[in-house]
Specification:
The structure holds two protein chains of two kinds. Chain A is mainly alpha-helical. Chain A is 55% helix and 0% strand. Chain A has five helices and no strands. The chains are: A mainly alpha, B mainly alpha.
Chain lengths: 154, 209
Protein backbone atom coordinates (compact mmCIF):
# COMPACT_ATOMS: atom_id res chain seq x y z
CA UNK A 1 0.00 0.00 0.00
CA UNK A 2 1.12 3.58 -0.81
CA UNK A 3 4.86 3.65 -0.05
CA UNK A 4 5.21 0.18 1.52
CA UNK A 5 5.65 -1.66 -1.77
CA UNK A 6 9.17 -1.71 -3.19
CA UNK A 7 9.27 0.70 -6.17
CA UNK A 8 10.10 -0.64 -9.60
CA UNK A 9 12.93 0.82 -11.65
CA UNK A 10 10.40 2.60 -13.83
CA UNK A 11 8.65 4.10 -10.80
CA UNK A 12 11.96 5.42 -9.50
CA UNK A 13 12.70 6.96 -12.90
CA UNK A 14 9.23 8.50 -13.17
CA UNK A 15 9.26 9.86 -9.61
CA UNK A 16 12.64 11.46 -10.29
CA UNK A 17 11.21 13.00 -13.46
CA UNK A 18 8.23 14.34 -11.53
CA UNK A 19 10.45 15.87 -8.87
CA UNK A 20 12.57 17.63 -11.50
CA UNK A 21 9.51 18.87 -13.39
CA UNK A 22 7.97 20.29 -10.21
CA UNK A 23 11.17 22.21 -9.57
CA UNK A 24 11.56 23.33 -13.19
CA UNK A 25 8.26 24.13 -14.97
CA UNK A 26 9.97 24.16 -18.39
CA UNK A 27 10.40 20.37 -18.10
CA UNK A 28 7.58 18.42 -19.65
CA UNK A 29 5.65 16.10 -17.33
CA UNK A 30 1.93 15.21 -17.44
CA UNK A 31 2.15 14.33 -13.71
CA UNK A 32 3.54 17.76 -12.83
CA UNK A 33 0.85 19.39 -15.00
CA UNK A 34 -1.86 17.56 -13.06
CA UNK A 35 -0.38 18.63 -9.73
CA UNK A 36 -0.14 22.22 -10.96
CA UNK A 37 -3.82 22.01 -11.98
CA UNK A 38 -4.63 20.96 -8.40
CA UNK A 39 -2.57 23.87 -7.09
CA UNK A 40 -4.22 26.32 -9.52
CA UNK A 41 -7.66 25.27 -8.32
CA UNK A 42 -6.81 25.30 -4.61
CA UNK A 43 -4.55 28.39 -4.54
CA UNK A 44 -4.90 30.29 -7.81
CA UNK A 45 -2.14 32.82 -8.39
CA UNK A 46 -2.88 36.44 -9.28
CA UNK A 47 -2.44 37.82 -12.77
CA UNK A 48 0.69 39.91 -13.33
CA UNK A 49 0.29 43.43 -14.65
CA UNK A 50 2.28 42.85 -17.86
CA UNK A 51 0.03 39.99 -18.95
CA UNK A 52 -3.12 41.93 -18.12
CA UNK A 53 -1.95 44.96 -20.11
CA UNK A 54 -0.93 42.74 -23.03
CA UNK A 55 -4.33 41.03 -23.14
CA UNK A 56 -6.19 44.35 -22.93
CA UNK A 57 -4.07 46.06 -25.59
CA UNK A 58 -4.30 43.09 -27.91
CA UNK A 59 -8.08 42.97 -27.77
CA UNK A 60 -8.40 46.73 -28.24
CA UNK A 61 -6.03 46.75 -31.21
CA UNK A 62 -8.00 43.94 -32.84
CA UNK A 63 -11.06 46.13 -32.53
CA UNK A 64 -9.19 48.94 -34.24
CA UNK A 65 -8.51 46.70 -37.23
CA UNK A 66 -12.09 45.51 -37.52
CA UNK A 67 -14.10 47.21 -40.26
CA UNK A 68 -16.93 49.07 -38.57
CA UNK A 69 -20.36 49.86 -39.89
CA UNK A 70 -21.48 53.45 -40.28
CA UNK A 71 -21.73 56.25 -42.74
CA UNK A 72 -19.31 56.07 -45.66
CA UNK A 73 -17.88 59.45 -46.57
CA UNK A 74 -16.67 59.78 -50.12
CA UNK A 75 -13.58 61.95 -50.34
CA UNK A 76 -12.69 63.80 -53.50
CA UNK A 77 -8.95 63.60 -53.96
CA UNK A 78 -7.33 66.83 -54.87
CA UNK A 79 -4.71 69.20 -53.70
CA UNK A 80 -5.28 68.20 -50.04
CA UNK A 81 -4.58 64.54 -50.76
CA UNK A 82 -1.44 65.41 -52.72
CA UNK A 83 -0.17 67.55 -49.85
CA UNK A 84 -0.82 64.74 -47.38
CA UNK A 85 1.07 62.25 -49.57
CA UNK A 86 4.02 64.65 -49.86
CA UNK A 87 4.07 65.16 -46.10
CA UNK A 88 4.07 61.41 -45.56
CA UNK A 89 7.08 60.97 -47.88
CA UNK A 90 9.00 63.72 -46.08
CA UNK A 91 8.14 62.12 -42.74
CA UNK A 92 9.27 58.64 -43.85
CA UNK A 93 12.54 59.91 -45.33
CA UNK A 94 13.28 61.98 -42.24
CA UNK A 95 12.82 59.18 -39.70
CA UNK A 96 14.78 56.01 -39.07
CA UNK A 97 12.46 53.02 -39.02
CA UNK A 98 12.16 51.56 -35.51
CA UNK A 99 13.99 48.23 -35.17
CA UNK A 100 11.73 45.21 -35.62
CA UNK A 101 11.40 43.06 -32.47
CA UNK A 102 13.29 39.80 -32.40
CA UNK A 103 10.74 37.05 -33.02
CA UNK A 104 10.87 33.30 -32.66
CA UNK A 105 11.07 31.65 -36.10
CA UNK A 106 9.96 28.29 -37.46
CA UNK A 107 12.64 25.74 -36.63
CA UNK A 108 13.33 22.10 -35.92
CA UNK A 109 11.80 20.51 -32.80
CA UNK A 110 15.00 18.52 -32.22
CA UNK A 111 16.14 20.76 -29.36
CA UNK A 112 12.98 19.89 -27.41
CA UNK A 113 13.96 16.22 -27.18
CA UNK A 114 17.23 15.56 -25.44
CA UNK A 115 16.22 12.08 -24.25
CA UNK A 116 15.97 9.00 -26.45
CA UNK A 117 12.48 8.08 -27.74
CA UNK A 118 10.94 4.84 -26.53
CA UNK A 119 10.30 2.41 -29.37
CA UNK A 120 6.57 2.43 -28.61
CA UNK A 121 4.21 4.99 -27.07
CA UNK A 122 4.71 8.55 -25.92
CA UNK A 123 3.55 10.18 -29.17
CA UNK A 124 0.87 12.28 -27.45
CA UNK A 125 3.33 13.50 -24.83
CA UNK A 126 5.80 14.51 -27.55
CA UNK A 127 3.12 16.34 -29.53
CA UNK A 128 2.02 18.06 -26.31
CA UNK A 129 5.59 19.16 -25.64
CA UNK A 130 5.93 20.63 -29.15
CA UNK A 131 2.52 22.32 -28.89
CA UNK A 132 3.36 23.86 -25.49
CA UNK A 133 6.75 25.14 -26.68
CA UNK A 134 5.31 26.63 -29.87
CA UNK A 135 2.37 28.17 -27.99
CA UNK A 136 4.89 29.86 -25.71
CA UNK A 137 6.79 31.12 -28.79
CA UNK A 138 3.56 32.49 -30.26
CA UNK A 139 2.73 34.26 -27.02
CA UNK A 140 6.26 35.70 -26.81
CA UNK A 141 5.97 36.92 -30.40
CA UNK A 142 2.70 38.66 -29.57
CA UNK A 143 4.27 40.29 -26.52
CA UNK A 144 7.31 41.36 -28.57
CA UNK A 145 5.07 42.93 -31.24
CA UNK A 146 3.09 44.75 -28.58
CA UNK A 147 6.33 45.95 -26.99
CA UNK A 148 5.63 44.29 -23.62
CA UNK A 149 8.13 41.44 -23.65
CA UNK A 150 9.72 40.76 -20.26
CA UNK A 151 13.14 42.37 -19.92
CA UNK A 152 14.83 39.10 -19.07
CA UNK A 153 13.42 37.34 -22.12
CA UNK A 154 15.72 35.22 -24.30
CA UNK B 1 -34.67 41.28 -1.03
CA UNK B 2 -32.46 38.54 -2.41
CA UNK B 3 -30.29 41.16 -4.15
CA UNK B 4 -29.89 43.07 -0.90
CA UNK B 5 -28.88 39.89 0.95
CA UNK B 6 -26.38 39.06 -1.78
CA UNK B 7 -24.90 42.54 -1.54
CA UNK B 8 -24.56 42.17 2.20
CA UNK B 9 -22.86 38.78 1.78
CA UNK B 10 -20.52 40.29 -0.80
CA UNK B 11 -19.44 43.04 1.55
CA UNK B 12 -21.82 45.54 -0.06
CA UNK B 13 -19.45 46.23 -2.95
CA UNK B 14 -22.37 46.68 -5.35
CA UNK B 15 -22.73 50.27 -4.29
CA UNK B 16 -25.40 52.02 -6.41
CA UNK B 17 -22.93 54.79 -7.28
CA UNK B 18 -20.31 52.27 -8.42
CA UNK B 19 -22.92 50.47 -10.48
CA UNK B 20 -24.06 53.70 -12.10
CA UNK B 21 -20.43 54.59 -12.91
CA UNK B 22 -19.97 51.15 -14.41
CA UNK B 23 -23.15 51.45 -16.43
CA UNK B 24 -21.83 54.70 -17.90
CA UNK B 25 -18.51 53.03 -18.72
CA UNK B 26 -20.34 50.21 -20.50
CA UNK B 27 -22.43 52.70 -22.47
CA UNK B 28 -19.25 54.50 -23.55
CA UNK B 29 -17.56 51.22 -24.45
CA UNK B 30 -20.57 50.23 -26.53
CA UNK B 31 -20.28 53.55 -28.34
CA UNK B 32 -16.68 52.70 -29.29
CA UNK B 33 -14.76 54.40 -26.45
CA UNK B 34 -11.51 52.41 -26.18
CA UNK B 35 -10.49 53.97 -22.87
CA UNK B 36 -13.79 52.94 -21.28
CA UNK B 37 -13.46 49.43 -22.69
CA UNK B 38 -9.88 49.18 -21.44
CA UNK B 39 -10.96 50.30 -17.99
CA UNK B 40 -13.65 47.61 -17.81
CA UNK B 41 -11.27 44.87 -18.96
CA UNK B 42 -8.54 45.96 -16.54
CA UNK B 43 -11.01 46.06 -13.68
CA UNK B 44 -12.28 42.51 -14.15
CA UNK B 45 -9.37 40.75 -15.87
CA UNK B 46 -7.60 39.67 -12.65
CA UNK B 47 -10.80 38.10 -11.23
CA UNK B 48 -11.56 36.31 -14.50
CA UNK B 49 -8.03 34.92 -14.54
CA UNK B 50 -7.68 33.75 -10.96
CA UNK B 51 -11.28 32.75 -10.13
CA UNK B 52 -12.64 31.51 -13.44
CA UNK B 53 -9.94 30.55 -15.94
CA UNK B 54 -6.87 29.41 -13.99
CA UNK B 55 -8.69 26.96 -11.67
CA UNK B 56 -10.62 25.40 -14.54
CA UNK B 57 -7.82 25.22 -17.11
CA UNK B 58 -5.10 24.31 -14.61
CA UNK B 59 -2.20 26.08 -16.28
CA UNK B 60 -0.94 29.63 -16.34
CA UNK B 61 -0.30 29.63 -20.10
CA UNK B 62 -3.73 28.21 -20.95
CA UNK B 63 -5.46 30.66 -18.61
CA UNK B 64 -3.62 33.65 -20.10
CA UNK B 65 -4.46 32.58 -23.63
CA UNK B 66 -8.09 32.11 -22.62
CA UNK B 67 -8.15 35.56 -21.00
CA UNK B 68 -6.92 37.14 -24.25
CA UNK B 69 -9.59 35.25 -26.18
CA UNK B 70 -12.22 36.34 -23.67
CA UNK B 71 -11.24 39.99 -24.02
CA UNK B 72 -11.28 39.75 -27.81
CA UNK B 73 -14.76 38.21 -27.73
CA UNK B 74 -16.01 40.84 -25.28
CA UNK B 75 -14.71 43.68 -27.45
CA UNK B 76 -16.29 42.10 -30.51
CA UNK B 77 -19.67 41.55 -28.87
CA UNK B 78 -20.02 44.42 -26.44
CA UNK B 79 -22.95 45.77 -28.44
CA UNK B 80 -24.96 42.63 -27.55
CA UNK B 81 -24.60 43.16 -23.81
CA UNK B 82 -27.71 44.36 -22.02
CA UNK B 83 -27.18 46.08 -18.71
CA UNK B 84 -28.26 44.20 -15.57
CA UNK B 85 -28.35 45.62 -12.08
CA UNK B 86 -25.46 43.41 -10.90
CA UNK B 87 -23.01 44.96 -13.32
CA UNK B 88 -20.81 43.81 -16.16
CA UNK B 89 -19.01 40.90 -14.48
CA UNK B 90 -21.64 38.13 -14.86
CA UNK B 91 -21.64 38.58 -18.63
CA UNK B 92 -17.82 38.63 -18.76
CA UNK B 93 -17.73 35.46 -16.68
CA UNK B 94 -20.10 33.65 -19.02
CA UNK B 95 -17.98 34.64 -22.02
CA UNK B 96 -14.87 33.38 -20.17
CA UNK B 97 -16.58 30.08 -19.31
CA UNK B 98 -17.46 29.50 -22.97
CA UNK B 99 -13.84 30.14 -23.96
CA UNK B 100 -12.74 27.69 -21.22
CA UNK B 101 -15.06 25.03 -22.65
CA UNK B 102 -13.35 25.31 -26.05
CA UNK B 103 -9.91 25.20 -24.43
CA UNK B 104 -10.78 22.09 -22.41
CA UNK B 105 -12.16 20.32 -25.47
CA UNK B 106 -8.87 20.98 -27.27
CA UNK B 107 -6.56 19.88 -24.44
CA UNK B 108 -5.19 16.38 -24.08
CA UNK B 109 -4.13 16.24 -20.45
CA UNK B 110 -6.11 15.49 -17.33
CA UNK B 111 -7.22 18.49 -15.28
CA UNK B 112 -9.88 18.80 -12.59
CA UNK B 113 -12.65 20.10 -14.88
CA UNK B 114 -14.22 18.60 -17.97
CA UNK B 115 -15.80 20.76 -20.69
CA UNK B 116 -19.19 19.28 -19.76
CA UNK B 117 -18.83 20.50 -16.16
CA UNK B 118 -18.36 24.04 -17.38
CA UNK B 119 -21.19 23.73 -19.88
CA UNK B 120 -23.42 22.96 -16.90
CA UNK B 121 -22.16 26.13 -15.18
CA UNK B 122 -22.95 28.18 -18.29
CA UNK B 123 -26.44 26.65 -18.45
CA UNK B 124 -26.95 27.45 -14.78
CA UNK B 125 -25.83 31.05 -15.31
CA UNK B 126 -28.60 31.47 -17.90
CA UNK B 127 -31.35 30.33 -15.56
CA UNK B 128 -30.35 31.69 -12.15
CA UNK B 129 -30.18 35.24 -10.81
CA UNK B 130 -26.78 36.69 -11.68
CA UNK B 131 -24.51 37.50 -8.75
CA UNK B 132 -22.31 40.52 -8.39
CA UNK B 133 -18.56 40.19 -8.86
CA UNK B 134 -17.43 39.81 -5.25
CA UNK B 135 -19.98 37.16 -4.40
CA UNK B 136 -19.52 35.26 -7.65
CA UNK B 137 -15.75 35.34 -7.23
CA UNK B 138 -16.05 33.94 -3.72
CA UNK B 139 -18.39 31.19 -4.90
CA UNK B 140 -16.07 30.28 -7.77
CA UNK B 141 -13.12 29.95 -5.40
CA UNK B 142 -15.12 27.86 -2.96
CA UNK B 143 -16.28 25.63 -5.81
CA UNK B 144 -12.69 25.12 -6.92
CA UNK B 145 -11.52 24.19 -3.42
CA UNK B 146 -14.49 21.83 -3.04
CA UNK B 147 -13.55 20.14 -6.29
CA UNK B 148 -9.97 19.66 -5.11
CA UNK B 149 -11.18 18.22 -1.80
CA UNK B 150 -13.59 15.88 -3.59
CA UNK B 151 -10.83 14.65 -5.91
CA UNK B 152 -8.43 14.04 -3.00
CA UNK B 153 -11.10 12.14 -1.07
CA UNK B 154 -11.19 9.58 -3.86
CA UNK B 155 -7.61 8.46 -3.24
CA UNK B 156 -5.75 6.87 -0.34
CA UNK B 157 -5.57 9.38 2.57
CA UNK B 158 -1.77 9.11 2.69
CA UNK B 159 -1.59 9.96 -1.02
CA UNK B 160 -3.98 12.87 -0.45
CA UNK B 161 -1.86 14.10 2.44
CA UNK B 162 1.29 13.99 0.29
CA UNK B 163 -0.37 16.08 -2.43
CA UNK B 164 -1.93 18.47 0.04
CA UNK B 165 1.33 19.18 1.88
CA UNK B 166 3.70 19.33 -1.06
CA UNK B 167 1.48 20.89 -3.76
CA UNK B 168 -1.27 22.88 -2.05
CA UNK B 169 0.60 24.00 1.05
CA UNK B 170 3.85 24.19 -0.98
CA UNK B 171 5.98 22.78 1.83
CA UNK B 172 9.59 21.82 1.00
CA UNK B 173 10.13 18.22 -0.13
CA UNK B 174 12.40 17.32 2.78
CA UNK B 175 9.94 18.71 5.32
CA UNK B 176 7.01 16.76 3.87
CA UNK B 177 9.09 13.59 3.73
CA UNK B 178 10.01 14.02 7.42
CA UNK B 179 6.38 14.69 8.37
CA UNK B 180 5.32 11.53 6.58
CA UNK B 181 8.14 9.54 8.18
CA UNK B 182 9.95 8.56 4.97
CA UNK B 183 13.17 9.47 3.20
CA UNK B 184 13.00 12.16 0.49
CA UNK B 185 13.58 9.54 -2.20
CA UNK B 186 10.70 7.42 -0.86
CA UNK B 187 8.55 10.53 -0.73
CA UNK B 188 9.22 11.10 -4.44
CA UNK B 189 7.87 7.61 -5.16
CA UNK B 190 4.90 8.26 -2.87
CA UNK B 191 4.05 11.51 -4.67
CA UNK B 192 4.38 9.81 -8.05
CA UNK B 193 2.01 7.05 -6.94
CA UNK B 194 -0.37 9.63 -5.47
CA UNK B 195 -0.47 11.53 -8.77
CA UNK B 196 -1.14 8.33 -10.72
CA UNK B 197 -3.95 7.44 -8.31
CA UNK B 198 -5.46 10.92 -8.65
CA UNK B 199 -5.36 10.77 -12.43
CA UNK B 200 -7.01 7.36 -12.40
CA UNK B 201 -9.74 8.58 -10.03
CA UNK B 202 -10.45 11.64 -12.19
CA UNK B 203 -10.56 9.59 -15.38
CA UNK B 204 -12.94 7.06 -13.82
CA UNK B 205 -15.18 9.85 -12.60
CA UNK B 206 -15.26 11.40 -16.07
CA UNK B 207 -16.15 8.03 -17.63
CA UNK B 208 -19.12 7.71 -15.29
CA UNK B 209 -20.44 11.25 -15.98
Amino acid sequence: MTDELEPTEEEIRESQRLREALEDPSKDSPDADLLRAVQSAANPKTLDRVSLDAAVESSLSRRGNKPRGGVVIRVVFGAGALLAAAAAIVFMVGHEPSPAPELARARSTQSLFKERFETQGGESARIDRIAMARAADLRDNHYARWGVRDRGHR
Amino acid sequence: MVGRMQRREAGDRSDPNDLEAERLLVTKAQAGDRVAMGELLRKYGPALYSSVLLPRLGSDAAAKDALSETFAKVVERIDRFQWQNVGFYPWLRTVALRIAIDALRARKRTVLWEAEDIQREVDASQTTTPLDQALQERRDREAARTRVDAALKKINPRYAQAIRMRVIEEKPRDEVAADLGVTPATFDVLLHRATAALRKALQEENRHD
